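Can you please make up a whole protein chain along with its backbone structure tokens because I've never seen that pairing?
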Amino acid sequence: MTQSKNDYNKTGQIRYIKPLSRQVIIAKANEILESFYPSRILPIDIERILDDMDIPVIPIPELKKIIGKDAFITSTFEQIYIDEYKFTNEPLSRILVAHELGHKVLHPQIYETFEIKNVNDFLEFQNNQPLLVAYNRIETQAEIFASALLIPPDTLTKLIKELLESKNGIENLDLFDYQKFFRNLIIKYNVTRFIIIPAVSEVSNEGKALMKQMMNFSSQLY
């Protein structure tokens, strides 16, 4: 997304991140799918997308311990570095690299100003408090992008609709139905429940109602 000159301070550091609507971010994720993975076969093959975009994923031992973060992408968008242990967890690593890809898609102009080429550069960036204030917004935007890329909203909406139709309405769902549905989503999209839950809640009114009903069932267990 294009930033204006007024968004930078006198030293060229970003001080303001333009807000992006969820719809705009989803549209950007769809553009990536259309360009690099038009089949949209689930689970989304994020490795193939990154290969076609010439962005290698490089595991680093104890990266999380060194920088306090699971992964980062360089400002040239030539590599994604990821914690070696997290890399072995496929559902989690898929989310992490999709998140970093989101910075390339959504924040190319901004990320160039960070001048992150390696781990040491990222540590220096973290120590720059003025940048971190603006950085929080782009992190949120990248999270939305990762969700939209790996869990395309149209496919999730269809699955929710099929569930409700199979039970003749949300009022006929029990706790077992919810547990089975969410387990199937995790397998189908090959992601963790921590990204599935907000995706369902945000995708539609039916998804929001589904989550509310599930929380009601869960609360009754305690």
About this structure: The first strand starts at residue 57 and ends at 60. The first helix runs from residue 22 to 36. The mean pLDDT is 90. Residues 153-219 form one domain.
